[in-house]
Give the backbone structure.
Amino acid sequence: MNDMTQAKYKKRAKIFKAMAHPSRLLIIDELSISGERCVCELTDMVRTDTSTVSCDLAQLRDAGLVIDERRGSMVYYRLGVSCILDFFECVEAAMISKTECKPRLLN
Amino acid sequence: MNDMTQAKYKKRAKIFKAMAHPSRLLIIDELSISGERCVCELTDMVRTDTSTVSCDLAQLRDAGLVIDERRGSMVYYRLGVSCILDFFECVEAAMISKTECKPRLLN
DNA sequence: GGCCTATTTGTAAGTTTAGCCAAATCTGCA
DNA sequence: TGCAGATTTGGCTAAACTTACAAATAGGCC
């Protein structure tokens, strides 16, 4: 694995690491449904400290997954990558089919 | 966020956590290209300890992303979810378009 | 300017993960 | 059975992540 390849995978890993947390996945889901939300709205939803949500959003932003926009005193976030939900659906479908297949193996 | 929702997001997070590492992303890429590989082949590729690769593969397996099959003394791994690569391409495309858009914002 | 609200950043403690080595399993073969 | 190669598991230390509190920053309003 050369340096360029290494850098490529590190960048990808950053994206996945950003998504690898229940709270941040909830945020992604919510943004995909409602279009955009401010930090305070997301804080109510995740039920944790504002600063924690802010950090989670910063992590998603650094990974390029969400876009922030300040309007007045509030900062609104929205999804930057549209394909996230398709991927969720695909993975979930694969997991369902996997669990459905398991009993067959017992025959 | 109720318990059922919490469980759903924890499960999703496990999948992303499994992918959130350069070595494991390289493994996924390699399996998507070559179809299947044994642990020793992947060890040569990742350039790390066999036990580390074995742990990485176990993590991918627990997340439902790869399938293992023992043939003789060797264990072969292959992808269990087909949509991973589509997702990579989509995310990468989004990141490229994002960086291309940035100069426009400077006008 | 001064105050209030919304958000971000810094810090610190607790938890989790990565990486490597050694030991244990498992398979094929003599 | 006993040996050799392939893979997995357990244990350990260093690094990274999570989380909440406190402090700092930014915008709106008087």
In short: Residues 3-81 of chain B form a domain with the Arc Repressor Mutant, subunit A fold (CATH 1.10.10.10). Chain B is about 70% helix and 15% strand. Residues 84-105 of chain B form the longest helix (22 residues).
